[in-house]
Specification:
The protein is an alpha/beta fold. The chain is 42% helix and 13% strand. α10 links the parallel β11 and β12. The two termini are 49 Å apart. About 3% of the residues have low confidence.
Length: 525
């Protein structure tokens, strides 16, 4: 049976630290605490007094002052780990926590989870090849020496960085080390921890290197684990639920997030609001509970992005600067079929092919595997297609040697629609309005990752009105844009009425258009 030694890095809220230690050790697990030396001495004394008689709690032998992005966070972790290894010989796993983390599963579940696979859980991605770092410094974190704290000494930090950069004072990475990067919140087996401590003693050169890198808590343990442990024994993930806004700010959880947190495929969550007393009470009771079954649906990340994104419609609709002089050509005609039900649009496009000679391409800006010719690499990813959308479509016109081209798009591609409809070419828009049953909306939520097979029915019921309203909103945005040459087919209209609009959109005969709109099962799910 797994026995967990929690490595707790903290610097405030002594009452919460005491409660957390008592809660996690009450079921037989352990805790090693490093309380920041910058914090108030009275707070540390309060914690020591409250936990001094708890045999499952130990303190790091040396407390140091910690700074964000600095080696001190790694050193504090090492001090706490060393204390835990010596004090708790029965500990099988070592789990890194912060003061605002809380368990979102029972101890029983956590132990069974860790027993089920003999692996280390740590995010460990190649530093240079992965896209883990989205913005800011990348290789500069490693090749320059960072001697000052970026948060507390920004002037010195950037002056030293600029000085080294101007003089070309770069350094090499230890040749036998492949630097990795990932979240600092890991769970490692005892054997791995012992290997790391032995490595630290024998490879002082590697330690010296990381001491002057920037944000080493995202690279040090991640690199060493990959260096010491067979790849088959590493699960590249964290067991702590972390969510960030698109501004890089950690998402805070409150009282009404209880059910959502329990359904996530994690053992802990960060950050829990200090004001979320009811959430803390319920989660605290949960850890000691037995016989609790958890329905894992894991929709928190996608659900957060979906719901918060609804309020941010003030996006850039203008052409990107490198496309301002780019045009498809005045003599060309781009036909765009817009439909939320992709299978309906694809059926219609298939029938259009049968009655016309217009080249057709399905959701080229939405589906990675859309069938496209080789256009020199511009077609390989959705990102490239979207960034160079006009160049891509121009090349498709040239490839098919045509002046008329039909493509499909999702209604949420409003920026693309704005861009193409503002081009000098003739752009025609055919919007297909469909009916959305609850079953379709549930299937849509699963396809886009908002829900999973185990999402509770009550969660689905709460989500359906939002999804339905979102689809209505997308259609309203298209209508409000007042596009020229905008035609609208409706599932509720008869084939004859829809044929009139399709004939005008495609500039084909009414008879040929009627063959398309009268097709059997055109709108069925």
């Amino acid at each position: 049976m797994a026995k967990i030694a929690y490595i707790l890095l903290c610097h405030k809220d002594p009452e919460a630290i005491i409660n957390q230690a008592e809660r996690l050790t009450a079921v037989g697990d352990y805790m090693s605490i490093h309380f920041d030396a910058r914090a108030k001495p009275a707070h540390f004394d309060m914690i020591r007094r409250a936990l001094k008689d708890n045999p499952n709690v130990v303190f790091a032998r040396k407390r140091i002052k910690c700074g964000w992005g600095a080696w001190s966070l790694v050193q504090a972790s090492i001090h706490a780990v060393e204390a835990a290894v010596d004090a708790f010989p029965r500990a099988t796993h070592f789990y890194m926590l912060s003061g605002d983390c809380m368990a979102i599963k029972s101890a029983e579940y956590a132990h069974e989870f860790l027993d089920s696979r003999d692996v280390d859980y740590i995010e460990s991605f190649d530093f240079f090849e992965s896209d883990w770092i989205k913005t800011g410094m990348k290789q500069e974190r490693l090749i320059y020496r960072h001697l000052f704290n970026e948060r507390t000494q920004p002037g010195l930090f950037y002056a030293a960085y600029g000085f080294q950069k101007r003089l070309g004072l770069t350094r090499s990475i230890p040749p036998d080390i492949q630097v990795q990067i990932g979240s600092q919140w890991w769970c490692l087996r005892r054997r791995t921890i012992e290997w790391i401590l032995d490595f630290i003693k024998s490879r002082r050169d590697v330690v010296r290197f990381f001491r002057t890198t920037w944000i080493p808590d995202e690279t040090f343990f991640q690199t060493l684990v990959r260096h010491l442990v067979p790849e088959t024994e590493i699960e590249t993930r964290t067991l702590t639920c972390l969510m960030f806004s698109d501004y890089g700010v950690p998402i805070t959880f409150y009282n009404d997030h209880y059910d959502l947190l329990l359904s996530q495929d994690f053992l802990f969550a960060r950050k829990i609001s200090p004001e979320a007393r009811e959430l803390k009470r319920r989660l605290g009771a949960l850890y000691a509970a037995s016989g609790v079954e958890f329905q894992i649906s894991n929709e928190a990340q996608s659900l957060f992005k979906f719901l918060t994104g609804r309020g941010r419609i003030g996006r850039r609709f203008a052409s990107r600067f490198w496309e301002t002089e780019s045009t498809l050509g005045r003599e060309r005609e781009l036909l765009i079929v817009v439909c939320k039900k992709w299978h309906v649009a694809k059926r219609m496009v298939e029938r259009i092919r049968a009655v016309s000679n217009i080249p057709t391409i399905e959701y080229l800006f939405n589906e990675e595997d859309t069938d496209l010719p080789d256009l020199g690499g511009i077609q390989t990813t959705l990102g490239k297609r979207t960034r160079h959308r006009r160049s891509l479509v121009r090349m498709l016109f040239d490839y098919y040697e045509t002046d008329r081209l039909l493509v499909c798009m999702d209604p949420n591609n409003i920026e693309l629609l704005q861009d193409f409809c503002s081009d000098r070419s003739v752009t025609r828009l055919l919007e297909i309005e469909c009916q959305f049953s609850d079953d379709y909306l549930k299937g849509h939520a699963m396809r886009v990752g908002l829900t999973g097979e185990r999402t509770p029915p009550e969660t689905l019921e709460r989500l359906l009105p939002t999804i339905r309203q979102d689809m209505i909103f997308e259609s309203d945005r298209i209508r409000d844009a007042d596009f020229e040459n905008h035609y609208r087919l409706r599932e509720t209209d008869d084939p004859e009425k829809n044929a009139e609009k399709l004939a005008a959109f495609l500039a084909i005969s009414h008879g040929n258009a009627h063959q398309v709109t009268a097709s059997e099962h055109l709108f069925s799910d």
